[in-house]
Design goal:
Elements (H helix, E strand, L loop, with lengths): L4 E4 L3 H13 L5 E4 L11 H4 L15 H6 L2 E4 L4 E5 L4 E4 L4 E3 L2 E4 L3 E3 L12 E2 L4 H10 L5 E5 L3 H12 L3 E5 L12 H14 L2 E3 L4 E5 L6 E4 L4 E3 L2 E4 L3 E3 L15 E2 L11 E3 L4 E2 L8 H16 L12 E6 L2 E7 L8 E7 L2 E8 L2 E7 L3 H12 L14 H14 L5
Helix pairs in contact: 1-7
The structure holds flavin-adenine dinucleotide (FAD).
Organism: Paenibacillus sophorae
Pfam families: Pyr_redox_2, Rubredoxin_C
GO molecular function, one term: oxidoreductase activity
């Protein structure tokens, strides 16, 4: 009997890959081995919906009946501990051996540890999986003071959830601004004042040097010597791909498992996708990227022809502290020729131009409003004849909209 397609890690990339394989191969056996004790779930909800019922079926990527209908076997609480490529075998912690015809590595990432004395104290948390979220929620007490370390999207969403649930929150960020990877300087500053007006304290350019407490956290010390009293610390300072499984193999690893643009590793027949994978020197670490990685890898595993992964324009939607905003594409002034900002639809908006096309946008507008910017960036709508330098942003965007309509399929 033909060996199964084996997928390690039960997350977004794994589900998408299993679906792609099944779409191309109706007969094959498909097995997902996941170390968590749950069917694959929407990890984003751990912060966006921290105080909702995270164990509800609604959080699952696919319900159990979908796996049954598609004959995809998900084995939970199955941690892969050893890979023997020469035998095409995986071993799980319980001593079982799993053979495969093709293997997909989707072990995701863990949160980067906070490298300071006191990080091992009770009351110090990070949120990567369901257990982490449960542990944080069950340890909070009425009136708890929480220091959230990391002013990126995940940190701020956590801060918002805690603030809404009635806890006293301080956000501590080492960089000079909040959401520095997604926002321009002005938006970061506006966001900081929103947080502060809501009653959340913000400390910028503040590196944590230690966490103090006897048995459990009682405060953190910052690099300027000041101290913040708190009962809990929740940190969110980046990710580290889970590559331990391949460490004794010939599979190439840098930060993540190195893959080519077909998502294949340095060993033919073994693929990697999602947060564990490094493509062109870059670990994406985003939900949309994990889905698309998974789909592409699954297609390539099951098909004779090959599909090249094409990175989607990254989109961040932020809804917290009474603020809706989005950030799309490249919003790094250093990588662009020109930035144009002003009010569009009555809200602050900035667009980033490079080589006469819009490559990025930040706007304090809703998700629905983001679509036009996303489309303009994806379709590389040119700004020839507009001369954006010296033209106001509303005029530029009106022209972009009309060019989009003019180039719409069928137009
Ligand atoms: C709290 C939180 C909020 C986020 N918010 C956003 C957001 O707003 N927008 C966005 O784009 N992205 C967000 N992300 C990132 C996004 O969730 C990830 O990019 C995405 O989940 C990656 O999917 P994946 O399948 O690669 O890995 P994961 O979802 O991490 O799944 C990997 C799975 O593999 C398991 N595993 C690891 N090692 C083994 C092993 N040896 N054997 C078996 N199983 C193993 C892990 O336990 C895990 O269940 C967020 C992440 C977190 C944690």
């Amino acid at each position: 009997m033909a060996k199964p397609y084996l997928i390690i890690g039960g997350g977004a990339a794994a589900v998408q890959a299993a679906k792609a394989i099944r779409d191309r191969d109706d007969e094959a056996e498909i097995i997902i081995l996941g170390e968590e004790n749950h069917l694959p779930y929407n990890r984003i909800k751990l912060t966006k919906g921290l105080f909702t019922d995270l164990h509800s079926e609604k959080v699952l990527i696919k319900k159990e009946k979908w796996y049954l209908a598609n004959r995809i076997t998900v084995i939970t609480s199955a941690c892969a501990v050893s890979l023997r490529p020469e035998l095409r075998q995986i071993e799980t912690e319980d001593g079982r051996t799993w053979e495969y015809r093709k293997l997909l590595l989707c072990m995701g990432a863990r949160n980067r540890a906070l490298p300071v004395p006191g990080a091992e104290l009770r009351g110090v948390h990070t949120i990567r999986d369901m257990k982490d979220a449960d542990a944080l929620k069950s340890s909070l007490a009425s009136g708890s003071r929480v220091a959230v370390v990391g002013g990126g999207v995940q940190g701020l969403e956590t801060a918002w959830a805690l603030y809404e649930a009635g806890y006293t929150v301080t956000v501590v960020e080492a960089a000079p601004r909040l959401m520095g990877r997604q926002l321009d300087r002005h938006s970061s500053e506006l966001l900081r004042s929103h947080l502060e007006r809501s009653g959340v304290a913000v400390r910028l350019q503040a590196g944590v040097t230690s966490i103090e407490g006897i048995g459990s956290a009682q405060g953190i010390t910052l690099d300027d010597g000041s101290r913040i009293s708190c009962d809990h610390v929740v940190y969110s300072i980046g990710i580290q791909p889970n590559t331990t499984l391949v460490k004794d193999t010939a599979i190439q690893v840098r930060t993540g498992i190195v893959v080519n643009d077909r998502l294949e590793t340095s060993i033919p027949g073994i693929y990697a996708a999602g947060d564990v994978a490094e493509l062109d020197g870059h670990v994406e670490g985003l939900w949309g990227g994990a889905l698309e990685h998974g789909r592409t890898a699954g297609n390539n595993m099951a098909a004779e022809d090959s599909e090249v992964y094409s990175k989607a324009v990254p989109v961040t939607l932020f809804n917290a502290f009474g603020v809706s905003l989005f950030s799309i594409g490249t919003v790094d002034e250093g990588q662009c020729d020109l930035t144009l900002s002003g009010e569009v639809n009555g809200v602050y908006t900035a667009i980033y131009v490079k080589g006469n096309t819009i490559v990025g946008a930040v706007s304090w507008d809703s998700a629905a409003a983001s679509l036009i910017y996303k489309e303009a960036i994806e379709r590389k709508i040119g700004l020839e004849g507009i001369s954006p330098d010296g033209t106001d942003i509303v005029t530029v965007m009106n022209e972009v909209k009309s060019r989009l309509r003019g180039t719409a399929p069928g137009a």
